[in-house]
UniProtKB/TrEMBL annotation:
It comes from Lysinibacillus antri. The lineage of its organism: Bacteria, Bacillati, Bacillota, Bacilli, Bacillales. Residues 16-127 form the HD/PDEase domain. SUPFAM superfamilies: HD-domain/PDEase-like. Pfam families: HD. This is HD domain-containing protein.
Length: 206
């Protein structure tokens, strides 16, 4: 695990602050909290999948070469390697076109990652990514998309606040583990409060 952490850190250090190694550390922390309530889960699969889940993030790369290389260095059975790949594949939101999380390990990693997309950290990450991509803070003329393809989700340069309505505010109800659902509640409420305050300030009401 220590060697894998160092290897993936070298990858994530190339990404912006929204998907750096600190993100991975927080997702690991979330995963550990959920694992404590899921005794039947394979802890090794979960931890490795968390470390690797953003190595091939489509926002930063078009290939899975580095992900596959790192998985192939692991001293695991082919079945476990395939399981890790399946877990990683099921994590991404993809504009609502996500793959089903079929195993408890996939559900844990997905919830752990999505918990880091909401709440105070989620707010900070949204604007960090938006800043890195030159996005507007908000755009009152922009319509929230309800149904979109993965390509539409990834290619339109929407304002950061729009992203809350197209993804982040949806995540609470998409949690798959009981612990994930519990942890998401307070974070979701905080985003609502933030968006209300932001609206009041930009309209001169606060």
């Amino acid at each position: 695990m220590d060697q894998l952490k160092q290897a993936v850190k070298a990858v994530y250090d190339q990404f912006d602050a929204s998907h750096d190694f600190q993100h991975i550390e927080r997702v690991l922390q979330n995963a550990e909290a959920i694992l404590a309530t899921e005794p039947n889960a394979d802890h090794e699969i979960v931890r490795i999948a968390v470390l690797l889940h953003d190595v091939s993030d489509k926002k930063y790369t078009d290939t899975k070469d580095e992900e596959n290389r790192l998985i192939d260095t692991l001293d695991l059975t082919e079945a476990k390697k395939r399981h890790i790949r399946d877990v990683i594949e099921s994590v991404s939101f993809n504009g609502g076109n996500e793959l089903p999380a079929k195993t408890i390990e996939a559900k844990i990693v997905r919830d752990a990652d999505r918990l880091d997309a909401i709440g105070a950290i989620g707010i900070a990450r949204t604007f960090a990514y938006g800043g890195a991509k030159g996005r507007k803070l908000y755009d009152d003329e922009e319509e929230t998309r309800v149904n979109m393809t993965e390509e539409e989700y990834r290619t339109k340069n929407t304002a950061s606040v729009t992203h809350f309505y197209e993804k982040l505010l949806l995540l609470k109800d998409l949690m798959t583990t009981e612990k994930g659902k519990q942890m998401a509640e307070e974070r979701h409420k905080f985003m609502i409060i933030f968006l209300e305050q932001l609206k009041n300030e930009r309209e001169g009401k606060a």
